[in-house]
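A sample copied in:

***
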Amino acid sequence: MKDLDSEKKIAVLIDAENAQYSVLGAVLAELSKHGHIIVKKAYGDWSSNHLRNWKQPLNELAINPVQQFSYTQGKNSSDAAMIIDAMDLLYSNKFDAFALISSDSDFTKLASRLKESQIYVFGVGEKKTPIAFRNACDDFISTEVLRDLDTDQDSEPNTTAAKVANPVGTSPEERRLRSDTRLLNILRNAISEYADDDAWAPLGPCGGLIKRQYPDFDSRTYGYPTLTKLIEAIGLFQIDRRQSGSSKVHDIYVKETRR
């Protein structure tokens, strides 16, 4: 991960005519690791049948659709609108980073211009994205490598892992929590992001990342007042409370038990 502090304010601009709606959740989760996403806009001709499947992900992820009619058949008309908005947002001086989600090389100049203004630029697109656009960004993320945390499949979907995750003798409550693969994937991905060489991760930053990726995440939804108690109840993670200096306050670290 790039060395960006968690207070970075990010504007996400999506070229819907050259992006995949199926990876939007994973893309936003990845970008949330680097800071707070303030603006989310998607550009396209929403009257076109080509974009008919975008409605649900746009609504679920609270992405603002920007309508741009195609004045000429077969011509992408949303590029100019996206570039104009990017410059307006740049001149507002409210953002530290921009994420340009497209596999179109037409945004190469925009990425270069943003960098000239000392703005950090993420590019997000398929591996086929032209090299010029990829190199114009500070960090280019290939959508093929992103794993969607919202998947219903476990991160290790095999019979052996399932047996270890739900061994005989576990309580009904543990089995209930362990059967929620989305919950387990959210926790595992956050822990892996901050884990040290011994696989221990500080729980505070992990919780902050989860909240940025999933604003509606609340341990009380699962019946526990804190994230620590929720993780303890699952029974798949170790908790280590470490005293911070001479203070009586303890720093909490978490580590997944070997399966």
